[in-house]
Design brief:
Ubiquinone biosynthesis protein COQ4 homolog, mitochondrial; 55% helix; ubiquinone biosynthesis; 4-hydroxy-3-methoxy-5-polyprenylbenzoate decarboxylase activity; membrane; mainly alpha; zinc; 0% strand
Length: 279
Amino acid sequence: MRQLLLRAARAGVPLLLRGGPAHPGRARPSHSEPRGRDGRGEEEEEEMEGWQQLYPGHIPTSPLQKALLAAGSAVMALYDPYRHDMVAVLGETTGCLALPNLRDKMKNHPEGYRILQERPRIRLSTLDMAGLQGLPEGSLGREYVRFLEDNKVSPDTRMPPKFVDDEELAYVIQRYREVHDLMHTLLGMPTNMLGEVVVKWFEAIQTGLPMCVLGAAFGPARLSSRKLQVLATELVPWAIRSGLNSSCFLNVYYEQRWEQPVESLRAELGILPPPAVRV
């Protein structure tokens, strides 16, 4: 299973999909299938007629294919939590209930609704990095850039969605991925395993995404006993309280808030000040 998933990830993941090509219309039927006039199997022709690529990179999948992808990506993500490609597949194939709920929260909020309409992206090509670096200390933009530099991460590493069968919901999960580093910034958490687990607890409460719940539940297995104690006594209770108390973080138009102080935005959202512990 691990080798199959590794090969699938390198090839764009669809190797796990029975009859599911990376691009509609390129499937190769088995030699035993009856073929149509163009050389495709009749059953395959009927299946592919219903396929429609809803956005660039979209790979239509059946419920069974999604279940197989979810199971395989869950195994790989638990084996290696830093396999962001597998984490991404898991989020897309298990978010069928949580994503519509998040979209509705955005639609029912003035700022969230505007985000859905305008579809902003957080990428190096859309960010004025020099301008953000020149903002005052403590501002969202300056602290976000500091986070990227200190942890040697880039917003361009976020994978585009592939398996979400709704164009608007695909944007919702893309937005979630692109503001993940801003959650680290607001919560004051680094990208080490302890910091990631804390952020996942907050995101699990906020989003209900099974991927976040699994990360929050199983991530601590890789922590030392000292860090587990800090997590259980200080960080998880704070993350849960903040997640329950805070308004939906997807309803913030961060690109228009760069100059706002981090402490001010935390207070506006309802995020409690981080505990004074070393993470």
